[in-house]
Structure to design on (439 residues):
């Protein structure tokens, strides 16, 4: 079958250009065969390939990536490796306590894996265990924080509620009225991390970059993946290409490639840093899911992330970048009026592979075809742990986390087009408007 849509991320991702350059691994050429082929070198595919290589030390594991490593969604997110569950469908954002406990365990296992790999391989990715602030300014956001506080009590997780007098000592800005600080989140420079993970794969992983798979032929015990320069035949195939899994014939009409957008400033001068005040680095997510994420990075830049668009083909669309840059400027000005002359150096967008019921897919898709797809905006930790657990499960190992993922309902079906686009666009528009000053 022909793969009808290929990844096409914009070239302006700040994290990619600000991390150390590397020479991409060559594209695949000719025809070859391998016991294991993983498609997609984001957090999920990198973790799956690494763990397969460790579990099957005598097998070659081929990892194929359409773009350059670090340029796809895994390299262009806000860099929060989040520990806590946050079920936006539940009144206290924690919901069923047994489920929340296992989600917490999953996220912590993903965080631990990343930390171990960063330490073992000396990956320079600004990893800081500085926690996160969930910050509110509108009444709606304040109510979310109160409800979530109750949920965290139920889950017995530590937090600190900070009021508007205290927050400037943390974030510099006087913009927020309240924030819930939770200490367990880890922040990273995502592109530097992904590049470092790719450059420290075990010796039995062969990575091919800039090798978009254009056609897939599913046989009984072999799958042939064709690209512009030849083909790779897989004995067993692992799909770790997020919403593009649907273009390989699976979970069709069940993924929602919703794009969100980031801008990062130049480094603040020492005088600007003094004017801003607060801690030297931090990360704040919005209480309202349609609001703005803000980070101050260890190299003294400020990041703004907000705005959404629905791109059903999963490809970036340049028309949104200019429009959302204006929003980023307005969001920045609201929060940092003390920094009127600080410009953004880069603006970019990237896909969140959402699903209607916020459930991803984990397990077998067809004979000898497996997948970990649909990370629902939490791929840094979730992608890492689901990739690794899938590789363990393929080696015959399972535990309570694997059982939980295998038993999850998987993504719900979407309504058909054109109702889908109309409904999603309306939802995004309404949500962003309702976020008010939190946007
Ligand atoms: C602006 C932004 C902010 C975000 N913030 C956060 C955050 O703070 N924390 C968090 O946890 N998550 C965040 N996310 C979400 C996170 O980036 C994703 O959940 C994560 O990247 C998913 O990882 P993945 O490896 O499953 O998929 P991806 O990173 O999408 O990797 C899949 C790879 O498959 C490749 N591929 C697709 N089709 C083909 C093909 N035909 N042939 C070969 N290769 C192919 C793609 O090029 C891609 O590199 C954010 C996302 C964005 C865009």
């Amino acid at each position: 079958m022909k793969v009808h849509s290929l990844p096409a991320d914009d070239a302006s991702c700040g994290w990619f250009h600000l991390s150390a350059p590397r020479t991409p691994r060559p594209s695949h050429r000719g025809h070859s065969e391998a016991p294991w082929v993983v498609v997609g070198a984001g957090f999920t595919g990198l973790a799956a390939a690494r763990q397969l290589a460790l579990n099957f030390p005598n097998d070659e594991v081929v990892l194929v990536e359409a773009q350059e490593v670090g340029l796809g969604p895994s390299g262009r997110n806000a860099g929060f490796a989040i520990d806590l569950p946050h079920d936006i469908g539940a009144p206290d954002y924690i919901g069923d306590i047994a489920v929340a406990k296992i989600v917490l365990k999953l996220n912590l296992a993903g965080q631990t894996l990343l930390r171990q790999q960063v330490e073992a391989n000396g990956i320079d990715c600004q990893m800081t265990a500085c926690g996160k602030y969930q910050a509110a300014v509108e009444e709606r956001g304040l109510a979310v924080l109160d409800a979530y506080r109750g949920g965290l009590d139920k889950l017995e997780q530590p937090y600190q509620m900070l009021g508007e007098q205290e927050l400037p000592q943390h974030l510099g800005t006087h913009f927020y009225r309240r924030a819930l600080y939770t200490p367990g989140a880890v922040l990273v420079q995502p592109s530097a991390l992904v590049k470092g993970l790719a450059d420290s794969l075990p010796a039995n992983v062969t990575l091919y970059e800039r090798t978009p798979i254009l056609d897939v032929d599913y046989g009984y015990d072999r799958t042939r993946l064709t690209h512009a320069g030849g083909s790779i035949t897989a004995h067993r195939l692992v799909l770790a290409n997020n919403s593009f899994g649907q273009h390989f014939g699976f979970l069709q009409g069940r993924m929602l490639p919703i794009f969100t957008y980031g801008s990062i400033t130049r480094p603040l001068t020492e005088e600007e840093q003094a004017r801003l005040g607060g801690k030297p680095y931090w990360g704040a997510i919005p209480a309202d899911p349609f609001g703005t994420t803000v980070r101050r990075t260890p190299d003294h830049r400020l990041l703004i992330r907000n705005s959404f668009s629905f791109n059903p083909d999963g490809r970036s669309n340049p028309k949104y970048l200019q429009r959302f840059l204006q929003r980023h400027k307005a969001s920045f000005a609201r929060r940092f009026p003390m920094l009127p002359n600080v410009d953004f150096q880069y603006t970019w967008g990237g896909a969140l592979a959402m699903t209607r019921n916020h459930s991803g897919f984990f397990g077998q898709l067809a004979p000898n075809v497996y997948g970990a797809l649909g990370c629902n905006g939490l791929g840094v930790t979730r992608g890492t742990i689901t990739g690794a657990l899938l590789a363990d499960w393929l080696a015959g190992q399972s535990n309570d986390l694997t059982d939980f993922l295998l038993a999850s309902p998987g993504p719900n079906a979407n309504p058909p087009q054109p109702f889908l686009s109309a409904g999603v666009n309306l939802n995004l528009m309404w949500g962003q408007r309702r976020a008010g000053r939190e946007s």
Q: What stands out?
A: The chain has a mean pLDDT of 96. The chain is about 30% helix and 25% strand.
